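for the writeup, i need someone to sanity check this before i put it in the appendix. the sequnce is what the collaborator sent (i think, or maybe the updated version? ugh). structure was predicted straight from it, no edits. if anything looks off just tell me and ill rerun, i have time this weekend
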Amino acid sequence: METKGAKTRKRIIEKTLQIFSLKGYFNTSVNDIVQAAGLTKGGIYVHFKSKEEIWWTAYAEAVNIWKGIVFKDVRKIKDPLERLKKVIENDMKNYIGADVFCGGCFFLNMLLELSGQSDTMSKRVLDGFIKFSALFCSWLNEAEEKKILKKGLNRAEIANFLVISLNGTASFYAATKDSFYLDQTVKQLHFFIDNLRK
């Protein structure tokens, strides 16, 4: 059973995730967090030493939320190219398109804002994107080993292209809220992946 303190900490993070996503890290004040969580400053500082500590915890929770959505029903797919297609569909339709965070993609927003402002925080976000690309690359390597991938392809470049495409679409969707971009990206990236198949 969750303690009262654990529930309060969880509420702080849930509320702050939405504020950071919408307003950004630097434009979010501790007063914004206090108001959203329905606490006093003292109530916030019982659980966190600083706004930055809240961000680190919020970032970890955002990763958990994203993984739960994007990798749903993915691990059981044996064909690595079909796995790629499922992740793309989940990311576009069930994460970005579901407006999980009111400001759009939490990670893209944080990367854009924090780059040049906080090396440690922006590096943490960028590392997440790099790991996502590395995972895609590992699935392409698996497809190569299973002899279902065309020969001579630069798998690392393809993986980077897929991640960049997803992030570009996330930006367009955040600006327009038009699901056309999500649907078109899923369709075109599925077509692209199908054409990698031997």
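The mean pLDDT is 96. The two ends are 52 Å apart (CA to CA).
thx in advance!!
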